[in-house]
C-alpha cells in the first residue's frame, strides 16, 4: 500500500476527521471521547492536536437518523468539546434497512443526512493543515450504521480520493438482532471492501467474551453494552493514541495511516483483527502477548490453518526497561501465534510508548493508573470465516426471496446483491490462498 500523505507540520492541526454514524457508531464514539477527554489522557496541547481543531473543538462528526443517542453523547462528553454544527440528526430511523439508509430516505422538507454530513466533513477538512483521511465508527446491522455509512464511504472516496479511510466496523451478534442483518452486513462489507483502505472488524460475540475475560469466576457476570463499547474504545486508544515514533513537539496524528501502512501490505486484503491485554504492577510481556492473541482463531471450520499477512503490536508502559528486555521474545511469540506468511520478510511491526515522558505513561486505557498494555492488530485470514457466514446466510434468504421487497422499495437492485456476493467471494478466495 502506498502511504498517500506525507506532511511535516509543527504548530497546526492535522490529519484525521472522526466520523461516527448510527446508534452503535455514536455509542462507541461516546466511550472513545470520554476516554480521550479525561484529564489524565489529554495531558496537554501535544496530545490534543490529533483530535482537536485550533479552537479546541473535537474533530468529530456525529450522525444519526434519530436524535436520542447523539444528544446523550453530547451530554456525557462534558466540556463543550463538540461543534454543534457537527451533530447531525434526522427525524426518523432507517428501519434497519441498508437500502433505506444508503438512499438517504427523508421527508420532502428534510435535508438529507448525506448532504449535511459531507458539508460538515468539507469544513473539517478545510480546518486541517493537511487532511489525510477519515476514521469511521459504525455497525453492520442497522439501516443508518450500515446503509448510510456505505454511502458516506463511497462519497468520501469520490470527493477526497487521496485521503484514506479507516473503518471501525462492529458486526452484530450471530444469534440475530434483526431479520435484515445478513443482507445489511453483506452489502455494507462489499461497499467497505471497494472504498475503504482498512477495516477494523469487531464482532459483538467476540467482544462480549473479551470484555468479560478479566472476571475469572466460574460463572461469568453479565457484561453491559457500555462495557463492550469501553473495551472497543480501549483497543482503539491502544492503537491510535499518539506514540513516540510519530510525536515530535506536537503529535500530528499519523497513527491511523501508519497503521494501514503497517498491516495492509496488499490492498485487496484489508480486514483487521484487534485485541488488547493489560496488566497493573509488574509487567510480564510474554504473558500479555499470549493473552492478546488468546481468542485469535488458529484454523477455519474446515480445519484449514489461518495466516496473517502482517501484524502490529503497540506496547504502552511507564516502565522504560521492561518491554525492551522482552521485545524479541514478544515479537517471536506474536509471529508464531498469528502464523505470519513466509513471503513477508518483516511481518511484525512494533510501536512503543514507554517511559515517564510518554503521553501514555498514565494509561489511556485505564486513566489514572500506571498499567501496561499490549494492543495487537493483525491482518488475519479468520476474517474470511466471518465473511463466509454472512454470505451463506444472506444467500439462503436471497434465494428464498425473503424481505427483498423492503430493499426494492427503497431503490436497491438485484445487481447490488450480485456484485456484493461477488466482491466478498473474491475476498474470501484471497484470504483462503494465504498459506500457499
UniProtKB/TrEMBL annotation:
Required cofactor names: Mg(2+)
UniProt-listed GO biological process terms: cell projection organization; microtubule-based process
Domain Tubulin/FtsZ GTPase: 39-248
Keywords associated with the record: Cell projection, Cilium biogenesis/degradation, Cytoplasm, Cytoskeleton, GTP-binding, Microtubule, Nucleotide-binding, Nucleus, Signal
Annotated compartments: Cell projection, Cilium; Cytoplasm, Cytoskeleton, Microtubule organizing center, Centrosome, Centriole; Nucleus
Molecular function (Gene Ontology), one example: structural constituent of cytoskeleton
Family assignment from sequence similarity: Belongs to the tubulin family.
Name used for this protein in its record: Tubulin delta chain
Protein's gene: TUBB8
Amino acid at each position: 500500500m502506498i502511504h498517500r500523505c506525507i506532511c511535516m507540520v509543527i504548530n497546526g492541526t492535522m490529519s484525521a476527521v472522526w466520523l461516527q454514524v448510527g446508534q452503535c457508531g455514536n455509542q462507541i464514539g461516546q466511550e472513545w471521547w470520554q476516554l480521550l477527554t479525561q484529564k489524565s489522557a489529554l495531558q496537554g496541547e501535544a496530545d490534543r492536536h490529533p483530535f482537536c481543531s485550533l479552537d479546541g473543538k473535537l474533530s468529530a462528526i456525529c450522525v444519526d437518523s434519530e436524535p436520542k443517542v447523539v444528544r446523550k453523547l453530547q451530554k456525557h462528553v462534558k466540556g463543550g468539546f463538540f461543534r454543534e454544527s457537527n451533530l447531525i440528526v434526522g427525524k426518523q430511523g432507517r428501519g434497519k434497512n441498508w437500502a433505506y439508509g444508503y438512499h438517504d430516505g427523508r421527508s420532502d422538507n428534510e435535508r438529507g443526512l448525506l448532504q449535511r454530513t459531507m458539508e460538515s466533513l468539507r469544513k473539517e477538512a478545510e480546518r486541517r493543515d493537511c487532511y489525510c483521511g477519515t476514521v469511521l465508527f459504525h455497525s453492520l446491522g442497522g439501516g443508518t450504521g450500515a446503509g448510510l455509512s456505505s454511502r458516506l464511504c463511497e462519497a468520501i472516496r469520490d470527493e477526497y480520493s487521496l485521503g484514506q479511510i479507516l473503518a471501525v466496523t462492529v458486526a452484530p451478534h450471530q444469534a440475530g438482532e434483526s431479520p435484515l442483518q445478513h443482507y445489511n452486513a453483506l452489502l455494507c462489507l462489499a461497499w467497505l471492501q471497494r472504498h475503504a483502505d482498512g477495516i477494523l472488524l469487531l464482532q459483538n460475540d467476540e467482544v462480549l467474551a473479551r470484555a468479560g475475560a478479566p472476571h475469572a469466576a466460574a460463572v461469568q457476570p453479565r457484561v453491559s453494552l457500555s462495557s463492550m463499547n469501553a473495551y472497543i474504545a480501549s483497543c482503539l486508544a491502544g492503537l491510535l493514541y499518539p506514540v513516540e515514533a510519530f510525536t515530535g513537539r506536537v503529535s500530528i496524528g499519523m497513527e491511523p495511516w501508519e497503521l494501514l501502512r503497517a498491516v495492509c501490505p496488499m490492498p485487496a486484503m484489508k480486514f483487521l483483527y484487534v485485541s488488547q491485554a493489560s496488566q497493573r504492577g509488574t509487567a510480564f510481556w510474554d504473558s500479555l502477548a499470549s493473552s492478546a492473541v488468546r481468542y485469535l482463531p488458529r484454523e477455519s471450520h474446515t480445519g484449514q490453518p489461518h495466516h496473517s499477512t502482517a501484524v502490529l503490536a503497540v506496547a504502552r508502559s511507564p516502565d522504560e526497561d521492561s518491554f525492551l528486555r522482552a521485545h524479541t521474545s514478544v515479537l517471536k511469540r506474536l509471529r508464531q501465534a498469528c502464523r505470519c506468511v513466509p513471503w513477508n520478510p518483516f511481518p511484525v511491526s512494533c510501536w512503543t510508548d514507554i517511559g515517564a515522558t510518554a503521553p501514555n505513561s498514565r494509561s489511556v486505557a485505564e486513566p489514572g493508573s500506571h498499567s501496561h498494555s499490549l494492543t495487537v492488530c493483525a491482518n488475519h485470514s479468520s476474517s474470511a470465516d466471518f465473511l463466509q457466514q454472512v454470505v451463506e446466510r444472506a444467500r439462503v434468504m436471497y434465494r428464498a426471496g425473503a424481505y427483498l421487497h423492503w430493499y426494492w422499495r427503497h431503490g436497491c437492485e438485484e445487481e447490488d446483491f450480485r456484485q456484493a456476493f461477488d466482491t466478498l467471494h473474491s475476498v474470501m478466495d484471497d484470504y483462503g490462498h494465504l498459506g500457499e
